Amino acid sequence: MPAPTKPTISPTVWTILFGVLAMGVVGLFSNVGDVASIPYSQFQSYLETGKVKQVVVNGDNIRGTLTEPTADGKTQFATTIVARDLATALAAKNVEFSGTPAGGAFSTILSWVLPPLLFLGVWMFASRGMGGAGGMAGGLFSIGRSKAKLVTAETDIAVAFDDVAGVDEAKAELHEIVDFLKEPVKFGRLGAHIPRGILLVGPPGTGKTLLARAVAGEAGVPFFSTNGAEFVEMFVGVGASRVRDLFEHARTSAPCIIFIDELDALGRARGATPMGGQDEKEQTLNQLLAEMDGFDRSAAIVVLAATNRPEILDPALLRAGRFDRQVLVDRPDKVGRVQILAIHTRKLSLAADVDLGDIAALTPGFTGADLANLANEAAVVATRRGGDNIAMGDFTAAVERIVAGLEKKSRILIPRERRIVAYHEMGHALVAMSIPGSDPIQKVSIIPRGIGALGYTLQRPTDDRFLMGLRELEDKMTVLMGGRAAETLLGEDVSTGASDDLAKATDIARGMVLRFGMDKALGPVAWDTEQGQFLGQPGAYWQPRRFSDRTAYEIDLAVRTRLESALARAIGILAYNRAALDEGAQALLARETLGAQDLPTVRAPATIAPIEGGIV
């Protein structure tokens, strides 16, 4: 796509300006040769002698016709009125007098020429504003042109595949596309042809756009970058026109790559919205489908797109011949997190005690963007404390800041509330320490954080888990119920502090019953399915329920039974370790924050009753 040039005035505009000026001059001086300009006193003389045949008065101006021509042969005349009293006095003294229009000839010319010029200027300004810079030809008439940016790797992109980590499979897939564009003969010797479309899918922050930038830096071919929202306008047909314009520029630059970020803004499934009014989006999508797999397939154009909502894309986009290659860019595992942290910390001054492996173990589920934010937060913490480098404690504080929120030491709790919070958090910690296989406790604190957290218990996972068994899910529910169990043993009314714990435990129980088929009475049936896997949004609320009222009752009963059993199990563990619970709560009240080495020793009960209803 050619670079934008400096706005210039086209010959058409100069022609229009000249025409308007000529019309004004012609209108002003039309019939000047046939009209005699006479003094007002001469007009009064002609009037008294009866030589005036017809008069037209326009304000102070008089135009008329004489009954007989003047000495120079003119029958038309024009004059300007002079005040009556003054005219009478001047005539009495035989003085010749005349009037002149206010402003003179120049003002008259402006009155003819200035309004059309002003209108033309406003129109040009409005047209330029609607279509961007570039004069009238590049303004109003460029609304259907593509807004894609032609990226030059040498000047615009400083990212390569070496700057991307944690997504090795996706890098290998895209590296193959780059090699295909650079060496088409090598890859085509056995009849293979270049893929038409590659779709990067994954949760937000995992590096989809970063991968596209790396492709632009490595490709060595023209790279057009745009966004799905840039094709959508209120005018029907504009988006389709922009798609055509983009692919026309791409054909002239082939072989090349087109990158469309946030494809879901453009490629939402047609007919999915019952309210209608999607003509513009559907026309734009139809044009994209035609351009990607139309009659002309000779051009070497690869379309690279990214989205975190693949479930809402139109099926025609995902069929073979269009976006038939889908590359998953998922959250990195522990090894990938170590590699990403190495990239984001290579320009930071790290202390000798910093272990990237330990930091990666503290951050399960973090994306690449989260880890970049973590490194920056650790640098901010170290700067705030006045350190010469970034220590491991700074990274731990940054993790707590991101996970639990900002510390609010100014929030003062009354003694009774502090005591409840201390027992609540110590209940979580002791239950987790009593159950074999639970994640180790890193820290327990009763310092308020974030919006509503009055304390927190930080666990450190030992490994990344991709599958969880029935017993592991039951153990997680029991740990979550540890806070409510401790409040129950305290002998006071239970508080609202366990609201978040109850919500998380309920989600686990409903997942076990509804999606994972882990309830013995309800059987191995998926009564519900997950929707919106990357953004976590719920499914459509108007979808009909796929089970009967009796089954719904059994589901509710199974979920409640599991939660009650988890609470009873947690109460049993804490009652067995009541002395440790009291000791740990008192230590928390005195010191506010305890590390793993400061926690009291617990004893696991000889037998822990399993949760009723599970498949054995």
General description of the model:
With 616 residues, the chain is α/β, with parallel strands linked by helices. It has three domains: 149-328, Rossmann fold, CATH 3.40.50; 334-404, Helicase, Ruva Protein, domain 3, CATH 1.10.8.60; 415-598, Methane Monooxygenase Hydroxylase, Chain G, domain 1 (Up-down Bundle). It has helices at 11-29, 40-48, 84-92, 104-131, 135-138, 153-156, 168-182, 184-187, 208-219, 238-253, 279-292, 315-318, 334-344, 356-362, 368-384, 392-404, 415-434, 470-480, 482-490, 499-515, 549-576, 578-591, and strands at 35-37, 52-58, 61-66, 76-80, 149-151, 197-201, 223-227, 256-261, 301-307, 325-328, 441-445, 456-459, 593-595. It has a six-stranded mixed β-sheet, with helices on both faces. The longest helix is centred in the first third of the chain and has 28 residues, at 104-131. The model is unreliable at 1-7, 131-141 and 610-616 (pLDDT under 50).
Key features?
616 residues; alpha/beta; Rossmann fold; Helicase, Ruva Protein, domain 3; Methane Monooxygenase Hydroxylase, Chain G, domain 1; 6-stranded mixed beta sheet; 4-stranded mixed beta sheet; elongated
CATH architecture of the largest domain: Up-down Bundle
Number of helix segments? 22
Beta-sheet strand percentage? 5-15%
CATH superfamily of the largest domain: Peptidase M41
Give the total of beta strands. 13
CATH topology of the largest domain: Methane Monooxygenase Hydroxylase, Chain G, domain 1
CATH class of the largest domain: Mainly Alpha
Largest sheet descriptor: 6 strands, mixed
Mean pLDDT, rounded to whole units? 78
- Strand numbers in spatial order across the main sheet: 5-7-8-9-6-10
Straight-line distance between termini = 65 Å
Oligomer: single chain
Structural class by sheet pairing and helices: alpha/beta
Tell me the overall shape. elongated
Tell me the Rg in angstroms: 41 Å
